[in-house]
Amino acid sequence: MAGNRSHSEGAAFETTQWSVVLAAGGEQTSVARKAMATLCQSYWQPIYVYIRRRGYGMEDAQDLTQEFFFRIE
User: Fold this and answer.
1) Best exposed site among 3, 15, 22, 66 by fewest CB in 10 Å?
2) Is the pTM here over 0.85, yes or no?
3) What is the DSSP letter of 16?
C-alpha cells in the first residue's frame, strides 16, 4: 500500500488508456471491475502523492485516495 513508500516515489501519471476508463464506468460486470482494478493499480500512487504534496498526512492521504476511487466508481 502507499504508506510503505516515500511520497516522492511514483509521482508520474501513466498515459491514460481511455478504453479502460470507459470500461470501468460501465455496468457492474467482471470487465468493469477488472478495468477499475487496473485504474486503481495505475493511479493510486500518483494520486496519493499529489494529496500528500497538498499537505495531508499519510493516513488522511490514504483515506482521500480511497475516497477518490470510490467516487469515480
Assistant:
1) 15
2) no
3) P
Over residues 13-30, the pLDDT tens digits come to 667 778 888 888 878 889
What's the rounded Cα separation, in Å, for the pair 9 and 22? 28
In this structure, what are the phi and psi dihedrals at residue 41, rounded to the nearest 5 degrees?
Answer: -65, -40
- Say how many residues make up the chain: 73
The C-alpha cell at 60 is 488522511
Q: Write out pLDDT tens, residues 25-50.
A: 878 889 999 999 999 998 999 999 99
Query: Which segments of the chain does DSSP mark as H helices, in order?
Result: 18-24, 30-53, 58-72
Rounded Cα distance between 52 and 1, Å, is 14
Residue with cell 498526512: 57
In Å, how far from its chain's centre is CA 7? Answer: 14
The number of CA neighbours under 13 Å toward the Cβ of 30 is: 0
